[in-house]
Amino acid sequence: MKNNWEKVKLGDICGYSRSRIPTSEVNLYNYVSTENLLKERAGKTIADSIPEQANLCEYNNGCTLISNIRPYFKKIWFANIRGGCSNDVLVYRPNKGINDKWLYYLLSQDSFFDFVMSGAKGTKMPRGDKSQIMKFSVALPPLDEQRKIAGILSALDDKIELNNKINRNLEAQAQAIFKSWFVDFEPFKNGKFIDSELGKIPEYWQVVKFSEFLKPRIEKINNSTITEYSVTNSGIFKRDEKFKKRLSGAKTFNKIIYYADMVFGMSREILNWGLMRDQIGSVSSAYTVFSVNTELVDLSYLEFFMRYHHEYFKSIIRLASREGQGIDKAVLFNKCVIIPDTNAIARFLEILNSISNSRLAINEESRRLVQLRDALLPKLMSGEIDVANVAV
């Protein structure tokens, strides 16, 4: 640590928000919960709902919000607006003389989340101890150096966010093309249409029930060497190796999933699902798994169809029964999907592949920027890299 840096505790430089905000002033955009904070420092998304209560914990522009449930997910967001949040989200307000963005980067460090986990209470759903958290040891630079450190890291994050916006725009373009072609049938309106269970569709297209291309998969394994996956409302993702469930003992089994499998799960009455794109993996036995016959339906097209018609698929949710929360297989099997002719699918996939290649190149650049930011972060925060004479 540099000579002009002070050694302090986190509680000396910030505090938790104690103020409240009326629920009437909160909307889906400025409400924050553990559900819409994203893992691995990816910020937040728009909330699905707002709780019915008189008021919520308030945050303001310049606060740092962190999910206090399962801290190892590293759900953190720097607020640029005013809003409200659930009690499971901690709101950190910087004290006078502390740069708000520098505080955000201080709390973004792996060392901070490791410290929170060291004092967390509970096993299945660990929560950080608010008193213990404030004992985190901090190397405090002068305010001018705080600003410079924050400026360096913010420049990288700004570029990453710009890349994310470009990719979101590319994704929106793909969705717009899907709607134009396979919902509004714009390129095919001059052709002949026929009746189907889902309304009129172009001639030579088909409507197929899910029962025709889905088959339940119940194969299980007791082997921790197979990568474990989880399912969110954004798809299927590999679980963090550090915190994934260790499969051991005769009573602990996971379901095996293979390429093209469709996996369903539930989270607080929200339907989560995704299509497996890797060759093999495993998921918790709580998930429902189906193999997909890719000779009947293209995976990319099927994913677009289900994402666009998400309201149509809500009825497969089984909220309460003696079997518990989950999905109703019989309802799912009776759902239908429009299958376009091979020429339409081929043309769509050609455009989709071009968009996907652009997104992959942008993602690769963002990955390198994230690596650079994460490598610089602890060195800047510890004073290993001297920014005193850096112009930012």
Model regions low in confidence, pLDDT < 50 over at least 5 residues: 245-251
Number-wise, the strands total: 25
Helix percentage range: 25-40%
Instruction: Calculate Rg over CA atoms.
Output: 24 Å
Strand content: 15-25%
> How many helix segments?
8
Largest sheet: 4 strands, antiparallel
Structural class: alpha+beta
- Order of neighbouring strands in the sheet with most strands: 2-9-6-7
Morphology: elongated
Distance between the termini: 21 Å
Quote the average pLDDT. 91
Overview in brief:
The protein has 392 residues and is α+β, with helices and mostly antiparallel strands.
Topology:
Layout: E1 6-9, E2 14-16, E3 20-22, E4 31-32, E5 55-59, E6 64-67, E7 76-78, E8 83-85, E9 89-94, H1 100-107, H2 110-118, H3 130-133, E10 137-140, H4 143-182, E11 193-194, E12 201-202, E13 206-209, E14 214-216, E15 220-221, E16 229-232, E17 235-238, E18 254-258, E19 261-267, E20 270-275, E21 280-284, E22 288-292, H5 299-308, H6 310-313, E23 317-318, E24 326-327, H7 329-334, E25 336-339, H8 342-382
Parallel strand pairs: 4-8
Antiparallel strand pairs: 1-10, 2-9, 3-5, 5-8, 6-7, 6-9, 11-12, 13-25, 14-22, 15-18, 16-17, 18-21, 19-20, 19-22, 23-24
Helix pairs in contact: 4-8
